[in-house]
Amino acid sequence: MVITKILVNFIITITSFFNMTFDSAISSLKRGEFVMIHDSDGRENEIDMVVAAEFVTPEHIVRMRKHAGGLICLAIDNSLAEKLQLKYMHNMLLSSNQLDDESKNMVMGTAPYGDHPTFSLTINHKQTYTGITDRDRALTIKEMSTLYKKDSPKQIFNFNFKTPGHVPLLLASNGLLSSRTGHTEMSVYLTQLANLSPITAICEMMDSETYSALSVDKAEKYAKENAIPFIDGKELLEFSKVN
Questions:
Q1: Which of 44, 136, 204, 232 is catalytic?
Q2: Neighbour tally for 90: CB within 10 Å
Q3: How many alpha carbons lie under 13 Å from residue 227 in its C-beta half-sphere?
Q4: Residue in 131, 109, 127 with CA at minimum distance from that of residue 119
Q5: Which residues of the chain have pLDDT under 70?
Q6: Backbone phi, then psi, for 236, in 5-degree steps?
């Protein structure tokens, strides 16, 4: 009986801690501010800076470029990807008649960390010039975020966006964390919790001293110094199972 009470109190304490952490992240996203997500040490073992796409400005792009340094991508939920009839890049390449069988051996089916990559097309908004400037990428990302609430998103997408471009699209798996536990799915899941359009700008955090991904210790220090909520992917997965 005593052990049962201790266990229940422990679960309540942990759940309360999780809720506080995720409430902080959700509030940050709603304000158009960053959160940081670590997937897990058994996966990519990387930390991404994440912001809701509907709030992206050139200043967000600058900060991701300077403080994160990885590839700035746009993650979109599966329902929008289906409406736009987007496909994963590896599937498009494998089904292409323009590649011979030998060349198709280059196509990555499963990444070293165990999942399929979520890359699709790379895009620019038609109003951009080169597409790579902070202003251009912010425009492309912001305009993509508006498609989620449109009645005819595919028509608007085909008219307003061009490929290839400078913003890689990442397609979240159907079922999100029950299907795949990458930054793509985790970031989209957080925007769903925040009742925002489930589209995010994400960027891996790199370490210019070690020439590798930023360590968890350094990332947590950066998060604390800059008042950015830090999300542990394993905890987010457990939270999603409970909630």
A1: 204
A2: 19
A3: 3
A4: 109
A5: 1-20
A6: -65, -40
Is 166 among the catalytic positions? yes
- How would you classify the pairing of strands 47-52 and 199-204? antiparallel
62 Rama class: left (phi>0) / alpha (psi -120 to 50) / beta? alpha
The CATH fold assigned to 25-242 is DHBP synthase (3.90.870)
Domain range list for the chain = 25-242
Residue 231 is encoded by which pair of tokens?
């999300």
pLDDT tens for residues 75-124?
A: 999 999 999 999 999 999 999 999 999 999 999 888 888 788 999 999 99
Give the DSSP per-residue string, 10-41.
Answer: HHHHHHHHHHHHHHHHHHHHHTT--EEEE--T
The yes-or-no answer on residue 38 being catalytic is: no
Choose, from 38, 54, 73, 78, the residue flagged as catalytic: 73
- The answer to whether 226 is a known catalytic residue is no
